[in-house]
Design brief:
Layout lengths: L2 E4 L2 E4 L4 E7 L8 E7 L6 E6 L6 E3 L7 E6 L4 E6 L8 E8 L5 E3 L3 E6 L1
Parallel strand pairs: 2-11
Antiparallel strand pairs: 1-3, 3-8, 4-5, 4-9, 5-6, 7-8, 9-10, 9-11
Amino acid sequence: VQLQASGGGLVQAGGSLRLSCAASGSIFSLNVLGWYRQAPGNQRELVATITPRGGTTTYAGSVKGRSTISTDSAKNTFYLQMNSLKSEDTAAYYCYVRDIRGLGLWGRGTQVTVSS
């Protein structure tokens, strides 16, 4: 499976973005799908995860209530909808999947820049 993240860009504070991660294979068979982010000088941190079969989601406290992770198995794509964006959301966002064997795969980052 290969992952292609897209949807980043420059947005004003309070605005919204939807990030997409397109997989080259079926996401339904994977164990976990997720989004992470990394700001300059910071460690990569978890933003949100979802289990593709059960739909169980988890969110970092910093984005909870402002973000929604979702899937479209027919398109082998998952999304991160981010609303009420803040300057501290500025980071490179990476999609991630883990298969049933526990093997993880990262996509390339997509940059999100929030101007205040």
